[in-house]
Amino acid sequence: MENLGQNKNIVIRRIKKGKHGHHGGAWKVAMADFALAMMALFLVLWIISNSDETQRAAISGYFQDPLAYEEGRKVPSRYVIDLGGSPSQADNVAESEVIDPEKILQAEEIESMAEAIERQRLENKKAQIEERINASPTLSPFKDQLLLDITTEGLRLQIVDKTNRPMFDTGSARLKYYSEDILWELAPLMAAMDNRLSIAGHTDAARMGGVDESEDANWSLSAIRADSARRALMEAGVPKTQIAQVIGMGDTAPLDANDPYAAVNRRISITLLNIRSEASVRNRGAEPEVEFINGGEAGADGEAGTADPREPVINRSGSMLERLRQQREARDNPYDNPPNEEEAFW
Q1: If exposure means fewest CB atoms within 10 Å of the residue's CB, which of 25, 104, 291, 332 is most exposed?
Q2: Domains recognised in the chain with CATH numbers
Q3: Dihedrals φ, ψ of 54, to 5°?
Q4: What's the predicted TM-score (pTM) here?
Q5: Rounded to an integer, what distance in angstroms lies between the CA atom of residue 34 and that of residue 50?
Q6: Average pLDDT for the chain
């Protein structure tokens, strides 16, 4: 046999042709989009055919400016000249780069927050003083002569006369021994408070002095009696810096207006001043400081020397507002956490 050399393997590939496969589900997505578009078209045609010109204008306006419409009706503009569009949009209003608008509250909100926090603090101090009066052997016998209330000026403690138990002798500014004991007992408690004190003396309407009203000695007597109370408080530990004012009221503010000669009208009132009253007293002797929003200094005419005219005159965030927020948001603040759940919130 003839030698054909080394044998080579021959590989035969056969391709089996079958039927064409399907093209997938892309047509289903296209069909769904087409059906949705047709449904939207028919819905628009139905709305147009069943609405009048006014309703169509409202629908068109809503899609152009949704904020200008509420419950299908256009909100009236709050401006005298209505230029159209949404009254709540302010795209062209310049904003300060220094002040965060979110940290600025309206003046009414700031005042309301400050008053709420201040009142709660005074309520707590009132309860503290009442507890001290009831627990003290010196004060408890006179608790019917110690009147506590909260006024627009702050927390007021009044020590009133009784018919058989006056604070002073008639026409005298010398304290009775028990009146002095009351003030000495109250002094440490007052000194522990962070409020400044206003001490006022009051008399009844009984005329002292000559017939002429200008010679009525009740004015000077009430002032001297208030100063006697001031002296007793300071001797018992109240610092001088805590005394805001000592005044004599005479018979101008009777406690019992129906009987100007009643014994209760003869009294000494000690008021723990709130923030506003304390600032009012402090600013009597000097021109109040003016704080501008941009931190500029006041000019000769009282205007800000470097103030931006675009910036409104409002409270600066970071001063009083920040302090109020910190007090309000503190976990242990008495505003949200009264001493017990049964205590009635004011």
Answers
A1: 332
A2: 28-93 (no CATH), 136-282 (3.30.1330.60)
A3: -65, -45
A4: 0.54
A5: 24
A6: 76
The phi, psi pair for 324, rounded to 5°, reads -65, -40
For residue 31, give the 3-state DSSP assignment: helix
| pLDDT tens string 62-111 | 777 766 666 556 665 554 445 555 555 545 555 555 555 555 556 667 77
Question: Measured between alpha carbons, how far is 311 from 30 in angstroms, rounded to an integer?
Answer: 56
Give the whole-angstrom CA distance, residue 315 versus residue 292. Answer: 8
Q: Which amino acid is at 235?
A: E
Cα-based angle 165, 169, 175 (whole degrees, multiple of 5) = 85
SS3 250: coil
Q: Which residues pair with 245 in a beta bridge?
A: 198
The tokens for 25 are: 């589900």
pLDDT tens profile 150-206 = 998 999 999 998 877 888 888 888 999 999 999 999 999 999 998 999 999 999 888
Residue type, 231: R
Q: How many CA atoms lie within 13 A of 170 on its CB side?
A: 7
For 128-192, give the DSSP string: HHHHHHHH-TTTGGGGGGEEEEE-SSEEEEEEE-BTTB-SB-TT--PBPHHHHHHHHHHHHHHHH
**Residue given tokens 């002073």 in the structure block:** 168
